[in-house]
Specification:
Immunoglobulin-like, five-stranded antiparallel beta sheet, single chain, mainly beta
Length: 196
């Protein structure tokens, strides 16, 4: 069974216990003895903790908010091949986003896709997604590189056994290597976390 980002399940602990001085317990033991002699008896109760497989993946702001990172070179810097940092992200001055991944379902693969098809930003072919450089500050939670074709992947480092608990900041730069026509070019990047 695979779990992905759309399936977020939380822990629960199930413990069923019933005690009453007026009911018959699941196991009953009775003992007796003469006055002054030590007596003892035992009874048993079974406890079970049931932990489901789960996967939690948070990118940027919490809740349903989708963050936008924007790159806006000044007029005299357009196409001069000096990278432009972003604004609007949840980390490092807006040019990055905070990432958290938690799971007990084995080594998690992160897939990066986009809604621009092969056309890059704006689906126009003017600015390729390869112009956006993505970096992670953690080698244990790397970001997939962005391409027009999409479906690039990385694997998160397992913390212990099948458990993953990783945090990172992913940062983005626009390489600004070409002079292009004026306009606003955008694409949604869809990151999906998938269990084995």
């Amino acid at each position: 069974m695979k779990i992905n980002i759309k399936q977020i399940v939380t822990f629960y602990i199930l413990c069923a216990c019933t005690t009453s001085s007026f009911s018959v317990p699941a196991e009953t033991s009775t003992t007796s003895g003469v006055s002054g002699s030590e007596i003892s008896t035992t009874a048993r109760l079974k406890l079970r903790v049931i932990i489901p497989r789960f996967l939690q993946f948070q990118l940027g702001s919490t809740g349903p908010t989708v963050d936008t990172i924007a790159f806006e070179p000044t007029p005299d810097a357009v196409g001069n091949a000096v990278a432009v940092a972003g604004t609007g992200g949840s980390a490092i001055g807006g040019s990055g986003t905070s990432v958290e991944l938690r799971s007990n379902a084995g080594q998690i693969t992160i897939v990066a896709d986009n809604d621009g098809g092969a056309g890059g930003l704006g689906n126009s072919g003017t600015i390729s997604l390869s112009e956006i450089t993505a970096r992670s500050d953690s080698s244990d939670l790397q970001t997939p590189q962005l391409t027009d074709a999409g479906m690039t992947t990385t694997k998160a480092t397992l913390t212990d056994g099948d458990i993953t608990e990783q945090r990172a900041t992913w940062s983005y730069e626009y390489s600004n290597s070409r002079t292009v026509e004026p306009g606003t070019y955008g694409a949604d990047i869809i990151y999906t976390a998938v269990s084995p």
